[in-house]
Design goal:
Blueprint lengths: L2 E5 L19 E8 L5 H9 L3 H9 L2 E9 L4 E8 L12 H10 L14 E2 L8
Length: 129
Amino acid sequence: MQQSRINLKISTNPLNPCSCQLNQMMEEVAFTMKLKPGVEAEYQRRHDEIWPELTEALVEAGIRDYSIYLDRATGTLFAIQKRVPNHTTADLPGLPIMKRWWAYMADLMETNPDNSPVATPLERVFHQD
């Protein structure tokens, strides 16, 4: 099975003392989303050109590592986020930049009425360090 990886290149600032040893304390969440047929290349292109202000908002909300993988056979996206314990990701849907991004991506994905992607949380069944 061929998979593609879309890396949003979100990382911490090495000058920020809070970024030290956060991996031990990070919360990890995983979820799936669904692309509409035939839009894989456009989805990749838009993420290759992700808006810096969106990346900044994600980092400010506490997301320190965010990867999205694509199963081309089904159009299923598998996303993994690592976030700090005191994250504010619940505030992201109210941000104008998030609403603009969702509207920009809505023609490519299955979405909710507010244009947010339909996201199905996943349960971890195995982990190895």
